[in-house]
Design goal:
Layout: H1 2-14, H2 23-63, H3 71-92, H4 102-105, H5 108-169, H6 172-274, H7 278-326, H8 335-367, H9 376-395, H10 398-401, H11 405-416, H12 435-438, H13 440-464, E1 468-470, E2 473-475, E3 480-483, E4 487-492, E5 498-506, E6 514-519, E7 527-530, E8 542-549, E9 557-565, E10 568-578, E11 583-585, E12 589-596, E13 601-609, E14 615-621, E15 627-630, E16 639-641, E17 678-681, H14 690-694, H15 698-708, E18 732-734, E19 739-742, E20 746-754, E21 760-770, E22 778-787, E23 791-793, E24 797-804, E25 809-817, E26 823-829, E27 837-840, E28 843-846, E29 851-858, H16 864-868, E30 872-873, E31 878-887, E32 892-903, E33 907-910, E34 913-920, E35 925-933, E36 939-944, E37 950-953, E38 958-961, E39 966-973, E40 980-989, E41 994-1005, E42 1009-1010, E43 1014-1016, E44 1020-1021, E45 1026-1033, E46 1048-1049, E47 1060-1064, E48 1072-1075, E49 1078-1081, E50 1086-1093, H17 1099-1130, H18 1136-1161, H19 1175-1186, E51 1191-1203, E52 1223-1232, E53 1236-1238, E54 1246-1253, E55 1258-1266, E56 1272-1273, E57 1275-1276, E58 1285-1289, E59 1293-1294, E60 1299-1306, E61 1313-1321, ...
Parallel strand pairs: 4-10, 12-22, 16-21, 24-32, 34-41, 43-52, 44-52, 54-62, 64-71, 74-81
Antiparallel strand pairs: 1-2, 3-5, 5-8, 6-9, 7-8, 9-10, 11-13, 13-20, 14-19, 14-21, 15-17, 18-20, 21-22, 23-25, 25-29, 26-28, 26-31, 27-29, 30-31, 31-32, 33-35, 35-39, 36-38, 36-40, 37-39, 40-41, 41-46, 42-45, 45-50, 47-49, 47-51, 48-50, 51-52, 53-55, 55-60, 56-59, 57-61, 58-60, 61-62, 63-65, ...
């Protein structure tokens, strides 16, 4: 702080006055520098607060630094900060440590500060010990718990072994005992683990609290620094702006002056051209311009005064009108009271006039010393009037004069200044003041009117004021409070305008109002108030008032602003303080102490101005009676009074000098009155001025005095010496600065020099005078003691600063001699420190009036605290060693004090040994150590010679430790191969001291490795997905450790070569998915791993928010219902005011408790009962998602490694693994709030299309909304072009809050599940939609095959058949039944060639004979519908022919989803007009009947047998296979049936073959030649053929027979038998 003050004082000294000679420019620019000064003051305050707050904040931050296990280290840091503070204060007090007893020379404040700091250090030590004890207890508990767990685990293993043994032995009793012991041990083990977890959680919570506290303090420190930076920047900005303004103003002034000169030159040229007098014309022109300016200013002033007078009259009329209207009665004023008041006011008025006249006369005499404005007669008359008034005042009764102090103060304030401005101004000409304004009668009349008005207000008050009554008691006190409580305008400038805003707060218990009454009378010309009455104000409400102050005079004003409230009047004090000087010295006595003659000592004293007005000062010695005294004695030195050389010069008194004379003092002090004192009188000339003296340098005067002084011998020092006036020494004198200017809010350093010349006491008095007459002179004294020794030391206090143990420090002591002979000197050090300090040489000779150097060597040992004793303070580590310089011949000695602060150079590493444990070669293990500087000096350190597998951070193990600072270092160990490590780390300090740190570790080479051990995901929005890929690699292919590194643990066995399995263990609450998490890697192969990060909101958090919202909604609904019931109960006929009051009170008194009871009695919904698809759950999820602030999480996923294959059934249980081979995958997972959210389907990000038939397309709409405040441009990821998903309608732009719809289609092409991700990308985040769908191949099972034969039916009758179709797929099938006969393309198909023309193999026509009536022969029901998954549907087929035909046919198609033909059935049927039919063989007619239909035969003709059916031919082919070992006859079959119908139920149906004899000869055989057939019966007739002996194989046999059917008519069929022989070895054609 001293350096800051010195630099600032130098800036003040170099500061020069503004280069503007004109007074108007000074006044204009004074306001511009005001804000700069304010900013500078603010910056200084910030610096002071920063300096004070740094130590406290740093202590607090250092106290909580680190974790709970290094609490002692944090306390140590606080000690460092406190010791730094102590050292700083000790350095600032160096100049007080002048002798051995320098502690007593300190100030009382510094001693108290040091003692307080020592006490604080002791308290901090106690706190540190307590913290260490707590931490040690926690560590002991944790270690005990861990030891107990290990012991229980061992006991469990032993019990398991014993159980196995007893099971094998079959000992049931021992087995049950061991099982009970096993259960007990398991229970204890669980308890111990829970206790261990509890301790760990407690430690973790403490660490978290410490971190939060540190973060909070860092934020506060940052805010404080920002405030300081803002203050500096605002100061810089204001200075820059003011410089620009000043430059602009200067340029403008120059431009105006230049323009005026140009105009003057033009005018001169014009006048010269006309031949006129240039000087006269220019002078008249200037006078004319000045006259116009004065005239214009007078008009403006007159106009403003008129406006003010009119406004004041209007205000008075308005106030009088309000008073008359509000008050009904008035009281008469007593005559006696009028007389007494008038006498008092007359007396005060005359006193004021007299005072004003004297003040004005004095001011005018200073400005115009040659003129006088007041005649003696006027003065005498004024005096007579004053005397007469005093006589009248003496006659006034005592009761009239005994007024209250408040009334007197108010009246004094009223008459301090006249009603209108200008009367008190020094520049005002009192001759121009009108008699009306100075007439005391009119002044008294005004005062009387004001008094009458105040008395009337006092009478009217009881009628309108209301008391505040609450609970039967009257409240007393102020009803309105103002902020601020006092309106204070500080350090104002005349001509400027200032505004302040105050707030009035209603502090009463009810509704109140306030109105402005006015302000003090003497403030009306300077103060204006802007106040809008707010009307009625409830309790606690406030209103604002703007007060404007326009100062016209540079004087301090005080008054008040008066208000009237419903409960009484109140006022706000107002104070206007002009700029003034507030000067003070930081000390009144300068004690130089004892010094040897010939030295030069300098001290400083600070003159501080804490006011806003600067002034010039002058320092001089105190004026006395032009005499000084000097005394010297042998036994005890006397006291000497010295003065500055200028004090001996009598100053010339000037009447107009602004510096007042100083009270003269004379101080002649002698300790022994018996001794003689010689007075030295110095005559001076009065013609010498002050300026000539001040120009003389102080150093030159002091040097002249020293040069003119003769050397004094020590033998005659005891004799009295009478000095002549010319030889009087000046020992205490002023420095260079004896006068100057002290600016506002600044300070000046004054230098006082002490040059001891004669042994004895010296004292000097100084006085500081100021140009400002309001500033009183300041006095201070300086004392010192001169010691006469033949030799002296230039620096009696040798400060070795801070020294370390076992280090050599040297310094040189220079000894000066003033003797005229050679002296022998002996140098001694106290015995206690003889082992540590040495002076070389021990003895020496110093020549006359010369110097001698002694070498000081200081080598502190560690035994210094024990050896030094009282010379060393162990708490502060300060060493003070007295060194004696003995003059052997004179038996005198000179004391020299050696100061030093001794500290250690140790660096402490905690802990001293580190065991890294097992570390794989793919990871780095970190251990923390604390490096503490035990010294109070900063020390550089560095870890040197580090092995390649060790790294130290921060700064690579290099840095600087501040005093007593502890630094946490991270020792990072990364094994480069599998082995056991044991090494030492060396830390060197800057003085080459070494400190060791022992380290141990075991390197592990796992069988597997990860391609990446760290995955940093991008910022992922909620419900979004970020994916990363990595590989698990097995590079172990050989066990030869000579060619390459092999997997092993330390120096253990090599892992076997073969398949190696891995398993990632992901925590349950981790939003990370690893696929696959379990697998096996073959040697030389690698396995792809996919890591997905899906941040979501926790289910518990959503449920809690949902319950909270439901409770809030229930409370709101209950409150609304309660209000409705209250409104119905109250009714609508009451007035509005009464209704509001009663309803609110009723709600509070009666309804409050009932409402709360009902609210608490209602059961709140439980979070577990909420369903994820409920509205409350979805609303809470949407709310939390929109208000999500983001989070960052870090996960470390272990990957266990084991040799061998993983069994699919048993999993990884059959494999044994080592925990030391574990790999670790670190994941950094930042989650942010989404910019776009899905609002459809309750906000789900999954689009599930469900089961969709293969080849079919389904559309879904997804609505997305922009919840960010920015306009978003959307981008979409590319879907699989060959996949089933398609983005039909994307969205390009989303405005804030806008919602749009996406359309996505799904068309599967395979029977499987499909899954794909669609990323909706924005500039910052992305939203991932998961699309899934199941492609299902529709499958059905039909109860009939490809052909459904309806059989034979009597024409024009119907027959039905039923078949079933079952849905065997997992989705609902939409079907439709189609017939080819009803196809829309059948007409086109009929235009082709008839099917009988083409071969039977090429025929594709399935539609056969159709009805003549146009109706379909075959019909089916139902024709369309849906079949659910796993269900079946029955279909009814109806066959209804309308004429006889054997070739009725059609094709039935089962079509699914109007696209796929799932099944085809060929429908067949035959119709006969007669009940019998023949089936079999090959028909010889065409399947297509003629277009000309044959009419059916009439029933009558049929009965009579007149018409016979034409003969139909049927071909039977029999093929005999020749060449087989056992020949088999050729066989064929012919079916004859009868149709079951009600029409021919009574008819007998017979058949018979004719002409079979020839057939039998040819080898043919028929089972049934004739027979009877019942309706609905079909008889099969087998025909066999065996070739006869004379049969020729190359000539097929063809024979005929006639088949006759008898039913309702007789029908004949020609049966053609074709027989042929076929070889068994030749293919048949």
């Amino acid at each position: 702080m001293e350096d800051n003050e010195i630099s600032y004082s130098k800036e003040e000294e170099q500061r020069s006055p503004l280069p503007f000679p004109e007074e108007e420019e000074k006044e204009d620019k004074a306001g511009q520098f005001s804000n700069v000064e304010e900013h500078w003051e603010e910056y200084k305050r910030e610096e002071e607060f920063a300096g004070v707050g740094k130590m406290g904040k740093k202590d607090a931050s250092e106290e909580v630094r680190g974790k709970s296990n290094i609490t002692s280290g944090a306390v140590g840091k606080r000690k460092v900060c406190l010791l730094k503070n102590i050292s700083g204060r000790l350095e600032s007090l160096e100049h007080y440590l002048g002798d051995v007893n320098n502690i007593q020379a300190m100030k009382y404040r510094d001693r108290i500060c040091i003692l307080t700091l020592q006490k604080n250090l002791k308290e901090l030590n106690d706190v540190a010990k307590e913290k260490q004890l707590v931490v040690q207890k926690a560590r002991d508990k944790l270690s005990t718990c861990q030891l107990r767990i290990k012991m229980l685990a061992k006991q469990l293993e032993c019990v398991d072994i014993e159980i196995e043994k007893e099971e094998e032995a079959g000992n049931v009793a021992a087995l049950s005992r061991l099982q009970a012991m096993h259960r007990r041990l398991c229970t204890e083990l669980e308890k111990e683990k829970d206790f261990e977890l509890k301790i760990a959680l407690t430690l973790k919570e403490n660490i978290r609290q410490q971190h939060e506290k540190n973060a909070k303090e860092e934020v506060e420190t940052q805010e404080h620094m920002e405030r300081r930076i803002q203050a500096v920047l605002s100061l810089k900005t204001s200075i820059t702006s003011n410089r620009e303004k000043l430059q602009t103003l200067q340029v403008w002034n120059k431009a105006m002056a230049f323009e005026a000169k140009q105009q003057e030159m033009k005018m001169r040229e014009a006048i010269l051209a006309e031949g006129g007098n240039v000087a006269k014309e220019i002078f008249l022109h200037k006078r004319l311009l000045e006259h116009e300016k004065e005239k214009q200013a007078f008009r403006e002033q007159q106009k403003s005064r008129k406006i003010e007078i009119v406004s004041q009259i209007l205000q008075e009329k308005a106030s009088i009108h309000k008073q008359r209207k509000s008050h009904s009665r008035t009281k008469a004023i007593k005559g006696g009271g009028k007389l007494e008041d008038s006498l008092l006011w007359r007396m005060k008025t005359w006193q004021y006039i007299e005072k004003t006249c004297k003040h004005s006369a004095g001011a005018i005499s200073q400005v115009f010393p040659q003129k006088s404005w007041c005649s003696p007669s006027a003065c005498s008359s004024a005096g007579e009037r004053t005397a007469s008034v005093r006589e009248i005042a003496e006659k006034i009764p005592h009761e009239v004069l005994c007024e209250s102090g408040e009334d007197k103060e108010e009246r004094d304030k009223t008459l301090v200044e006249p009603e209108f401005p200008g009367l008190w101004s020094q520049e005002c000409d009192l001759h121009k003041i009108s008699r009306e304004e100075t007439d005391p009668k009119q002044l008294a009349t005004r005062v009387e009117k004001k008094e009458i008005f105040e008395k009337k207000m006092e009478e009217f008050k009881p009628g309108i004021l209301h008391k505040q009554i609450l609970s039967g008691c009257e409240r007393k006190g102020r009803t309105f409070y103002s902020k601020p409580s006092c309106i204070h305008f500080k350090d104002f400038d005349v001509g400027q305008v200032y505004k302040k805003k105050i707030v009035l707060i209603n502090a009463s218990y009810g509704v109140n109002f306030c109105r402005l009454v006015g302000i003090s009378e003497w403030l009306k010309d300077f103060i204006s108030i802007h106040f809008d009455p707010p009307g009625k104000m409830s309790a606690g409400m406030s209103c604002e008032i703007v007060v404007t102050f326009k100062p016209m005079i540079n004087e301090t004003l005080e008054g008040e602003v008066m208000f009237m409230a419903q409960t009484g009047s109140f006022s706000v004090p107002l104070k206007c303080t002009a700029k003034r000087c507030i000067l003070a010295l930081d000390k009144e006595l300068i004690d130089f102490g004892s010094h040897v003659v010939g030295e030069t000592i300098s001290r400083t004293i600070n003159l501080t101005n804490s006011g806003a007005l600067g002034t010039r000062f002058k320092v001089q010695t105190s004026a006395g009676d032009s005499s000084s005294c000097r005394a010297a004695a042998k036994s005890s030195p006397g006291r000497m009074v010295t003065r500055h050389l200028s004090d001996y010069i009598t100053e010339k008194k000037v009447s107009n000098s602004p510096v007042t004379s100083v009270v003269e003092k004379e101080e002649q002090i002698c300790p022994d009155h018996s001794e003689e004192v010689t007075y030295c009188v110095t005559p001076v000339e009065q013609q010498r001025t002050e300026m000539s003296l001040s120009s003389c340098p102080t150093e030159q005067l002091g040097q002249d005095v020293l040069n003119s002084r003769s050397d004094l011998d020590t033998d005659n020092a005891c004799n009295l010496v009478e000095l002549s006036p010319e030889e009087t020494p000046v020992e205490i004198m002023l420095g260079k600065v004896t006068e100057g200017e002290v600016g506002p809010f600044s300070s000046v350093k004054l230098q006082i020099i002490f040059v001891p010349a004669v042994p004895g006491d010296v004292r000097a008095e100084f006085v500081i005078t100021f140009d400002n007459s309001d500033c009183k002179p300041l006095c201070f004294s300086a004392i010192g003691v001169s010691i006469d020794v033949p030799v002296w030391v230039c620096n009696p206090n040798i400060d070795l600063k801070i020294c370390m143990y076992d280090r050599l420090y040297q310094d040189c002591i220079v000894i000066q001699s003033r003797a005229k002979t050679t002296l022998r000197l002996k140098f001694e050090v106290c015995k206690e420190l003889s082992k540590h300090m040495e002076l070389l040489p021990k003895t020496g000779y110093i020549q006359a009036q010369s110097s001698f150097s002694v070498q000081l060597k200081f080598l502190p040992r560690h035994s210094l605290p024990e050896d030094a004793g009282s010379y060393f303070n162990e708490e502060t580590r300060i060493l003070e060693v007295p060194v004696t310089i003995l003059i052997v011949d004179k038996a005198k000695k000179v004391n020299v004090t050696v100061h030093a602060i001794v500290t250690t150079s140790d660096l402490e590493i905690s802990p001293a040994q580190i065991n890294f444990g097992y570390c794989t070669i793919y990871e780095a293990v970190q251990a923390n150590v604390t490096l503490t500087n035990k010294s109070i000096l900063p020390q550089e350190f560095g870890f040197v010679g580090l092995p390649e597998f060790v790294e130290i951070q921060p700064s690579d193990g290099l840095g600087i430790l501040l005093p007593l600072e502890s630094l946490r270092l991270d020792i990072i160990f990364k094994a480069n191969k599998a082995k056991e490590y044991s090494f030492e780390l060396t830390c060197k300090s800057e003085i080459n001291r070494q400190f060791k740190l022992s380290c141990k570790a075991v390197g592990v080479h796992p069988p597997l490795e990860l391609s990446h051990s760290l995955v940093q995901f991008a910022a992922t929005a909620l419900n979004g997905v970020s994916t990363a890929t990595l590989y698990v690699m097995n590079s172990h292919v050989s066990v030869n450790h000579f060619t390459h590194a092999v997997p092993r643990i330390g120096n253990g066995e090599v892992a076997p070569v073969g398949p190696t399995s891995f398993e990632f263990c992901v925590p349950e609450d981790c939003p990370v998915t690893i696929t696959p998490s379990v697998g096996t890697v073959l040697p030389g192969k690698k396995s792809l791993i996919q890591v997905s990060f899906r941040p979501t909101l926790s289910d518990q958090l959503i449920r809690e928010e949902a319950v909270r919202r439901l409770c809030r909604a229930a409370a709101t609904g209950a409150e609304i219902q309660k209000r409705k019931e209250d409104e119905k109960r109250e009714g609508k006929k009451l007035s509005i005011s009464i209704t509001r009051q009663q309803s609110s009170r009723q709600l509070v008194r009666d309804g409050g408790s009932k409402y709360l009871t009902s609210l608490h009695s209602s059961e709140q919904p439980k979070s577990e009962e909420l369903k994820p698809d409920s509205d409350a759950y979805m609303a809470a999820q949407a709310f939390l998602m929109r208000n999500f602030s983001g989070r960052f999480e870090k996960y470390i996923i272990p990957c266990f490694v084991a040799s061998g294959h993983i069994d699919e059934k048993k999993g990884s249980q059959n494999l044994s693994y080592s925990p030391y081979n574990t790999l670790y995958l670190e994941l950094h997972c930042p989650a942010v709030a989404p910019s776009v959210v899905v609002t459809s389907d309750n906000g789900k990000n999954t689009v599930n299309f469900g089961d969709v038939a293969v080849g079919h397309r389904t559309l879904k709409q997804i609505t997305i909304q922009n919840i960010s405040p920015e306009k978003l441009e959307l981008g979409f990821s590319v879907l699989n072009p060959n996949g089933p998903f398609l983005l039909v309608r994307p969205v390009g732009m989303l405005e804030p809050g806008e919602s749009k719809t996406l359309i996505i289609s799904f068309c599967p092409n395979e029977n499987k599940w499909f899954f794909e991700m669609l990323d909706i990308r924005t500039a910052k985040t992305s939203l991932t939609l998961s699309m899934t769908g199941h492609g299902v191949m529709p499958s059905i099972v039909c109860s009939v095959g490809e052909v459904l034969d309806m059989g034979y039916v009597i024409a024009r009758e119907k027959v039905t058949s039923t078949f079933k179709i079952q849905n065997t797929s997992t989705l609902t099938l939409r079907y439709s039944i189609q017939l080819d006969s009803l196809s829309s393309t059948r007409d086109k198909d009929q235009q082709r060639l008839p099917s009988f023309i083409t071969s039977s193999l090429q025929r594709t026509e399935f539609v056969g004979t159709q009805n003549y009536n146009g109706l379909s022969v075959f019909s089916i029901f139902p024709t369309e519908g849906e079949i659910l998954a796993g269900k079946s549907q029955d279909f009814i087929v109806t066959f209804s022919p309308d004429h006889e035909s054997l070739y009725y046919s059609d094709r039935l198609k089962v079509v699914l989803f109007s696209k796929k033909i799932a099944h085809v059935i060929h429908l067949k049927g035959a119709a006969r007009d007669h009940p019998m039919f023949v089936e079999g063989g090959i028909p010889l007619d065409v399947p297509i009947e003629s277009l000309a239909g044959t009419l059916p035969m009439s029933s009558q003709g049929a009965l009579k047998g007149e018409v016979q059916e034409p003969v139909k031919s049927i071909l039977l082919i029999l093929e005999y296979i020749e060449g087989e070992s056992s020949p088999v006859p050729a066989m064929t079959e012919l079916k004859i049936g009868a149709i079951q119908t009600a029409q021919f139920a009574s008819k007998n149906m017979e058949f018979s073959f004719d002409g079979l004899s020839l057939l039998q000869q040819k080898g043919f055989a028929i089972d049934f030649v004739k027979g009877t057939i019942k309706p609905g019966q079909v008889k099969c007739i087998s025909v066999s053929w065996v070739p006869p002996a004379d049969f020729r194989a190359d000539d097929p046999l063809l024979e005929t027979a006639l088949l006759t059917l008898k039913s309702d008519i007789k029908e004949s069929y020609q049966i053609l038998f074709m027989a042929k022989v076929v070889s068994a070895y030749a293919p048949s054609q």
